[in-house]
Design goal:
The protein is 42% helix and 20% strand. The protein is of the alpha+beta class and 459 residues long. The strands form 4 sheets. Strands 3, 4, 5, 6, 7, 8, 9 and 10 form an 8-stranded antiparallel sheet that branches. Strands 11-12-15-14-13 form a 5-stranded mixed sheet.
């Protein structure tokens, strides 16, 4: 067992967990050699990069692990140049992996086998031992019980619903609970049954959350896309995102008819609610999207997040791999179309090509997902130069809420299926005008605050 103290880093990213081994005068390479000699060791956490899983001053226990045994979502202790930290594995190839702090916006780049020291086995916090794997299982167990209660009430009251994503979908396609802490389950509900769904959630102690930027923005918004309902269960947040339509546009803005027709969104909503698949988990039935619809929705969901979040793309890859044999040569619909032909037809019918084409190209680039060549050819919406631009997107980084919203708007504008003369009309939308003014005003206030702080410091 090592005796440890904490060493401050001069690195700009102060969110990384920094560790040192006594004696303090020992060099980084010397420390690395000492740690690699041991099968197990413990370190004291410092920093906020892994909140809420790891807290400052937690005692973290590790064991040595071979590179070949490391899996996505493992928590590993690595040295990057002279910087030691513990972060989550979010992507892995045969030659390297990529890590990221759960509470960080940016990933750490490529981590090679020789940089990896060990993997977390447990955490001691205030004399309590916490096993991260057990924590994930506890959260999923609590979530599952809550989902069962809500779905039973939905079915009893004849609420038409379908899971867009969330725990039931994950359990069905991965056969194991998520190995990370997660936030919500997305449920699409028929608009005619929305009031009943809200009453049920309220009865079970859930409270709606208001994500509006301001009272004015809330007043200007001319339609509701989704509402989040929140409840704490044994210390874990359980969130249901109730959707009235598949959310791939701007949830902070209502109708954006100048970029995508509402009538197609309504038709897609009916398509999702009509074509479901029933599955049974632990003797409980759930309605989830049919495989073609699920693949389309997950692609749209990744687009909605500005083509970011490797875990989203990773799950879509797993869904496609599980469904691929059936999609290629399995049962056909009444028109004799295979699953992939149905996916192609629906993407074309709803004019979604521009939104999802980069998603499937990114899947091929990072996961070598088994996508049929004819299908990929139908997704060729852009010239090589434009597609290269989207393929350069860093799928491993996240964005601040405002920055993500601005980028999402410009992606919608550039990828909208409408001609430019119609798209330009979006800037006459009162909601868009208000949000532009709101964001510029916020940026100006921040700039003035920074200038004022610098002026005060120089006095």
């Amino acid at each position: 067992m090592f005796t440890l103290n904490t060493l401050r880093s001069k690195n700009k990213d102060m969110n990384k967990d920094i560790f040192s081994v006594i004696p303090a005068k020992a060099g980084i390479q010397s420390i690395l050699k000492q740690l690699k000699k041991r099968k197990t060791f413990s370190l004291q956490a410092d920093g906020n990069s892994m909140l809420p899983l790891l807290h400052p001053k937690d005692q973290v226990f590790y064991k040595k692990i071979r590179f070949s045994k490391i899996k996505t979502n493992d928590l590993v202790f690595v040295f990057q140049k002279t910087q030691p930290f513990t972060h989550r594995v979010i992507y892995k190839t045969d030659k390297y992996l990529i890590t990221k702090g759960d509470n960080n916006l940016e990933s750490d780049g490529k981590i090679y086998p020789q940089q990896i020291v060990g993997k977390i086995t447990s955490v001691r916090r205030k004399n309590k031992i916490i096993d991260p794997e057990m924590l994930y299982l506890i959260q999923s167990s609590l979530y599952f019980k809550e989902i069962v209660k809500i779905i039973e009430a939905f079915e009893k009251n004849k609420v038409s619903y379908v899971f867009l994503k969330g725990l039931p979908v994950h359990l069905y396609y991965e056969k194991i609970h998520p190995r990370r802490l997660y936030l919500d389950a997305d449920v699409l509900v028929d608009k005619a049954h929305y009031k009943t769904a809200v009453e049920i959630l309220t009865k079970f102690g859930y409270k709606s959350t208001d994500s509006s930027l301001s009272p004015t923005q809330k007043k200007l918004k001319n339609k509701t896309v989704e509402i989040s309902f929140y409840k704490l269960v044994n210390g874990f947040p359980v969130i249901f995102d109730v959707h009235l339509e598949p959310a791939f546009m701007m949830t902070q803005i209502g109708n954006l008819e100048a970029l995508y027709p509402q009538k197609l969104i309504d038709k897609l909503t009916n398509e999702f609610l009509k074509n479901k698949q029933q599955l049974t988990i632990n003797n409980q039935q759930f309605s989830i999207l049919s495989p073609p619809n699920l693949i389309i929705y997950l692609a749209l969901h990744f687009f909605h997040h500005n083509f970011r979040g490797a875990f989203r793309l990773d799950f879509l890859d797993k869904v496609i791999r599980k469904c691929h044999p059936e999609l290629v040569s399995g049962s056909r619909n009444k028109f004799g179309m295979t699953g992939w032909e149905q996916i192609t037809q629906k993407i074309n019918r709803y004019h979604l090509q521009n939104f999802v084409s980069p998603v499937f190209r990114l899947l091929k680039k990072y996961y070598n997902t088994p996508l049929p060549v004819p299908f990929l050819k139908t997704m060729e919406q852009f010239n090589n130069l434009t597609m290269k631009q989207y393929l350069k997107i860093n799928i491993f980084n996240d964005e601040l809420r405002t920055s993500a919203g601005v980028r999402r708007f410009f992606l919608l504008f550039s990828l909208s299926p409408f001609p430019i003369f119609k798209k330009i009309l979006v800037f006459f939308n009162p909601q868009v005008i208000y949000l532009i003014v709101f964001i510029l005003n916020s940026k100006l206030k921040m700039l003035l605050k920074n200038v004022l702080n610098r002026f005060i410091l120089n006095l």
